[in-house]
Design goal:
This protein is α/β, with parallel strands linked by helices. It is built from 10 helices and 9 strands. Helix content is 37%, strand content 21%. Helix 6 crosses helix 7 and helix 9 runs antiparallel to helix 10. The longest helix is centred in the middle third of the chain and has 16 residues.
């Protein structure tokens, strides 16, 4: 496995590769990331994983400085999973000057995560486009845990005519249902036990709808109420159309329920697809 930090060396290394599959990450890797790596290995001869904590997608009040950085451990995991190359650029490498060219994203980027984290998706889109341009993969893999992010990246690649297949990896969960996330490491023991409640509330909504309940508003409100009573601060519990991420109506059948909430100082997100 190669570890490369600069753009020119990476491009030189990749120029004769017949096919490239790419997994962008911010590091602090867990089994969820590794499942994406395994998907990538099935898609191409060469597997590239990037590790970069992208400041553009963090607001000044968010956890950019505290975000866990575990590069040595990450590289060991990736070597054990037979990754071809790890790209670990510095801040100066990806942003040699202040980034002034930014993408104008569709209105969906200002909803859900975009409403509560203004500028988040513009930061994501910027770094993903940079990385796509540097790596030039045929396939890129993103996790479904970040459902809205996957949707926006997929739309961005489609509308900008990138010759890249954007594939989704299923969310990997702990035994109690909690979606694996780098930020789970912020949770203390009591919070970790409570953290699976978000998944359980989304699962109750999914089961109710699949059993014929069409009172979407009541289902969302009940979940918010139970989480709030359990000590959470809820940003949103939202039923959306899967193919547009617009608000779902009772006529829709391809649905997804998404949730984001704070458990003390840790913000968790999750989602479940619903097959009505």
């Amino acid at each position: 496995m190669e570890i490369i930090t600069d753009i020119s060396s990476l491009r030189s290394f990749l120029k004769n590769k017949a096919s490239i599959a790419f997994v962008p990450t911010m590091g602090n890797l867990h089994e969820g990331h590794l499942s994406l790596v395994q998907m990538a290995k099935q898609q191409a001869e060469c597997t590239v994983v990037s590790i970069f904590v992208n400041h553009l997608q963090f607001s000044p009040t968010e956890d950019f400085n505290q975000y866990p950085r575990t590069l040595e451990k990450d590289c060991t995991l990736l070597k054990d999973n037979d990754v071809t190359v790890v790209f670990t650029p510095s801040e100066r490498t990806l942003y040699p000057e202040a980034q002034k060219v930014l993408l104008n994203l569709p209105p969906v980027a200002n909803t859900l995560e975009g409403e509560y984290r203004p500028g988040f998706f513009q930061g994501v889109a910027t770094v993903v486009l940079k990385l796509f341009n540097i790596v030039q993969p045929q396939v890129a893999i993103f996790g479904k845990k970040d459902y809205q992010q996957f949707y926006i990246v997929q739309e961005m690649a489609r509308q900008l005519n990138f010759p890249i297949d954007i594939l989704a990896g299923e969310t990997i969960r702990a035994a109690d249902g909690l979606a694996l996330s780098s930020r789970n490491g912020y949770l203390n023991n009591d919070e970790r036990i409570e953290a699976s409640r978000l998944y359980k509330m989304l699962l109750l909504i999914k089961q109710a709808i699949e059993q014929g309940n069409k009172n979407f508003q009541k289902l969302q409100d009940n979940a918010k109420r139970i989480l709030t009573q359990s000590g959470w601060k809820v940003d949103y519990i939202a039923l959306q159309q899967r193919n547009t991420l617009n608000q779902a109506t009772v006529e829709d059948h391809e649905l997804v329920v998404l949730g984001a909430a704070w458990l003390n100082k840790t913000r968790l997100i999750d989602n479940l697809e619903i097959h009505d």
